[in-house]
Amino acid sequence: MTYGDGVVKSRTAREKADDGYVPSPRRIERERFKRARARRATAVAALSTLVTGAVLFLVITRSPGWPRTRETFFSLEYARIALPKVLDGLLLNLRLLVVCGAAVLVLGLLLAVARTLRGPVFFPLRALAAAYTDFFRGLPLIICLLMVVFGVPALRLQGVTTDPVLLGGSALVLTYSAYVAEVFRAGIESVHPSQRAAARSLGLSGGQALRFVVLPQAVRRVVPPLLNDLVSLQKDTGLVSIAGAVDAVYAAQIIAGKDFNFTPYVVAGLVFVALTIPMTRCTDWITARMDRRRAQGGLV
Amino acid sequence: MRLANRPLRLASCAAVALLTAAVGCAPQDASSGGPGAAGPGKQSCERGRLPTVAHGTLTVGTDKPAYAPWFHDDEPANGKGFESAVAYAVAKQLGYDKGAVRWQTVPFNNAFAPGAKKFDFDINQISVSAARKRAVAFSSGYYDVRQAVIALKGSKAARAKSIADLRRLKLGAQVGSTSLDVLQDTVRPAQQPAVFQKNDLAKSALKNGQVDAILVDLPTAFYITSAEVKDAEVVGQFAATGTAAEQFGLVLDKESRITGCVTAAVDTLRKNGTLAALEKKWLTDAVSVPVLK
């Protein structure tokens, strides 16, 4: 028997090694067979991909309604008209996302901390935070928006804004801070009690233990679900348009409703997807960096 | 290697199967060759025997809620309101009496979605335009519409005498409406107009002072100011834009084979004075409203 495949990994039979090793005919035969199998696998994969593509292409383009579908959903002319207006509207989405996102993170964290405070004296605070999250997590966002955007101005309070964007943004913050508070709370409760116990035994106060030991671990654990909520918020910023403000999707709808063509919607959809992908990559990178830092000294 | 051929054989079999399925299952246009079926060029409008969606009945679409003064009590089937009356008059002209007309709820966006339609024609204050004709077929116009501005009584907007006076105000209109087109193309206000999903929301915003004035078509303006927002008034109407007057038309599927028959019916109703009589009965006379220049 020759060496097993596992021993001489980096050398194939072709290279003549300087240690006088000559691969056996059986090994040469085995390697040739493996190469042939690899080639065949690649060919089969390529063929099946081609066939699948061809079938999809044929089914879609040979369907009787395709010319009209193309005209209605993929019209270059309307894409050109729509893109600048959709991007104008997107500014509103982005402004709302940044401002509301920051407010939601802060408020959500405060709510989560309020819910996880210990000690009987904090009972009213805990109860209030629990009631808040229960209510606003359950209330459909669109109803919350209608109530805030059209209900608050109807009160005719002096000094309270009637600006639909500000009001709509507040409604988003109300609902999303409830979601995010629950995410943070799950993170805080997932930190093992021994961590707090160790921190307290080192002489840290309750507040310090929370600030320096529990929260950093909790936040790190919930980055992926937080991102989920952030992407969801980004798409829901468009609902503020219920009060007449024009966001990206609404700008698309205005053109679509005017000329009965759906292409602007497709453009707006692609713009949103293009916005979400870099966000996801960015958080993946942050998460990976945090993992690297945690795993200093190498993973076991 | 006999074994190694298996994936290849499998792949080729699958490919053949898939291609067969693709070619065989490609949906074909269903042609309902009922009586009275004819090519789009030559149409036989045999009374009561048109190639309709549901045989023997005429299916008419409109949005829900159906607003006054076009419909009354959100009930299109009662024959009350201008568009309900027009729909029944057209149906009668085509040889379908009241019992043979079925109403179908069709949201505005569905009226022009490509694909098979669930209605024979849709009546929903939809204005005829060249761009829209690329997506749907229209009958000839059954109503010449003017756009109007409404504002709260005593407000700055209510004192507007010209289009220039409107330019500095915060204006609103409904999405997909020609009111919005007039707002964007004729008024061209300094600040971005508010665009609403429904006129109901525009009314709320007007009451709350979130917009100074809203644009709607004239009959709707009269209805809002007389019945819904009583502290609002019609500030003025716009002169007809462009060469032809703006008209509401019945919406049909682009491939509908009854477009010619429906158009002929509307034309007849216009000629014999039926449309004018229905207008007089259901819509307020617009003579007294000043025209904004």
UniProtKB/TrEMBL annotation, chain B:
Residues 29-48 are annotated as: Disordered. The keyword Translocase does not apply. Transmembrane segments: none annotated. Residues 57-286 form the Solute-binding protein family 3/N-terminal domain. Residues 1-26 form the signal peptide. InterPro entries: Solute-binding_3/MltF_N. The keyword DNA-binding does not apply. This is Amino acid ABC transporter substrate-binding protein.
